[in-house]
Amino acid sequence: MKLTRREQLSGLAVATAGLSSALYAFDEPTRAPAGLSDGVVDTLLAVAEVVYPSDVDVSEAFVRSYTDGMSDVRLRETRRTVDDLNRRARQVFEQPFAAVPASKRDSLLRHLGVNRVQPKLQGTLAGRVRFHLVNSLLFALFTHPKGSELYGISNPRGHPGGVETLL
Fold first, then answer.
1. Stated pTM of the model
2. Distance CA 11, CA 74 (A)
3. Residues 103, 59: contact at Cβ < 8 Å?
4. Which pLDDT tens digit goes with each residue over 102-131?
5. How open is the CA angle 129-134-136, to the nearest 5 degrees?
6. Which sequence spans correspond to the domains of the chain?
């Protein structure tokens, strides 16, 4: 018996479909990535109050809209950094970072060296706070149209502006 090319291709397609459906049946269901807890968002809001200009009123919705787009790895590292920052705040002030008054939050961040250190994905607490919290919040501000207007950036990356921004 001699098979034609058409019969060979249709047999290959059926075998591929059968194999992929069998593999799909054994695949574990994926879970939806968990977002950030209210405590983590509260800490991000507290950091934003320190690093954002006084003209900016930061809201929970703004922070959540930015963090919802983060990858699972980035969310995990952000949680870990917030936990470590809260642990340090408890050592110094006996309360989590978000509960500390704003002036003392600023002094704690400066004492850690967040204003002087190079941002590091993984490294010292100061480097991770700078990378995962401070720089992420500043990026969210500068890429938002209202936040970028504070610094004269009329057409931030990712937002259309066209000719109107040149006038």
1. 0.71
2. 44
3. no
4. 999 999 999 999 999 999 888 899 999 999
5. 110
6. 38-50+58-149
